[in-house]
Design goal:
By secondary structure, this protein is α/β, with parallel strands linked by helices. Helices cover about 30% and strands about 20% of the residues. Bound molecules: S-adenosylmethionine.
């Protein structure tokens, strides 16, 4: 009965399994069909599950889910929170919302603010992960707090340059938050002026505050 089976999208948090909610973990453990990045599959898949790695071939992943959801629930693991730049966008384009259930996770962005003991209710959040934010989102305003996703092209160095061009002062503090929640997590405190001359850090969270 195809429509009774669900695609359960589980946010697995910033990386360390201690930060996944119990309901998400249970859904993953009980899944017959499990989709996720290779690292997540290595970490969470158990014997007897049929798995499908999320690769650049997103259509292949969609085909797997479409075929398997006819047989049972399919659990898809995504990093952080599913509502924040994840496979959920593509799933919403392919499947009706009624067929999808989301189990939220702790976003790397949330974790970064927690790590810095900073409230994030007044922060402007934007993504440089495979995209560039709207100019007004990153424009300078005194007291503004920015939280930014990065990738390898848009990293601590290139983003610092972009922010200086957007009017931010060289003395502005920037926190470079890498490998959040893992044992080798680092948070480096620097300034925009210094960051342009330091080695680039990618796939991190940048907090400008
Ligand atoms: C496509 S986004 C996914 C965001 C995810 N859905 C979330 O809520 O955290 C990937 C980006 O998130 C950030 N990120 C994810 N996990 C991280 C971690 N453990 N430490 C630092 N940044 C992380 C990096 O900027 C990375 O390039």
């Amino acid at each position: 009965m195809e429509m009774q089976n669900k695609i359960v999208v589980v946010g697995i948090g910033p990386g360390n399994p201690d930060y996944i909610v119990p309901k998400g973990l249970k859904a993953i453990e009980q899944a017959k069909f499990l989709v996720g990045g290779r690292r997540a599959l290595n970490q969470f898949a158990v014997d007897g599950q049929e798995t499908c790695p999320i690769t650049a071939d997103i259509q292949g992943v969609m085909d797997f889910i479409r075929a398997k959801v006819k047989l049972d629930h399919v659990v898809a693991m995504v990093s952080g929170d599913p509502g924040y730049y994840s496979l959920l966008d593509a799933l919403r384009r392919e499947f009706p919302a009624e067929q999808i259930t989301v189990i939220p996770g702790i976003s790397a962005m949330q974790y970064a603010f927690a790590r810095l003991v900073l409230p994030w209710h007044d922060a402007t959040l934007a993504s440089f992960h495979g995209r560039t934010p709207a100019a007004q989102d990153i424009a300078y305003k005194q007291g503004k707090i920015l939280g930014l996703l990065t990738d390898s092209k848009y990293n601590s160095q290139t983003i610092a340059e972009i922010l200086l061009q957007a009017g931010w002062p060289k003395t502005q503090t920037m926190y470079i938050c890498s490998r959040l929640s893992y044992d080798d997590e680092t948070v480096v405190t620097t300034t925009l002026g210094e960051a342009i001359n330091q080695p680039a850090v990618s796939h991190c969270i940048l907090i400008i505050a």
